[in-house]
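Q: What would this chain look like folded?
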Amino acid sequence: MDTRRSLTADEAHTPYINHVMGCRNCFAPTARYCPTGESLRADYVIAYVMEKPDRLARKRALQVEKDKNPHLFPLIRDRITSLIQAD
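A: My prediction, written as structure tokens:
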């Protein structure tokens, strides 16, 4: 988990996009991901959300992600919760 905390959204985006572009099982426009793609997407979203300046902005970003990818949201929520509790 500590490595996820230190990633910026830009740093997390590169492995995510490289994987999605090369994986035949992942298709980002329809939010279809293999297990590795799901994990990388979650890392990217978490890094993006945690860079937001305040709690309200983070909450809004999470709501957008929940609306776009409801099946992936529990993974993202659990990882963010564990990051916050670790602090």
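Confidence is low (pLDDT under 50) at residues 1-5.
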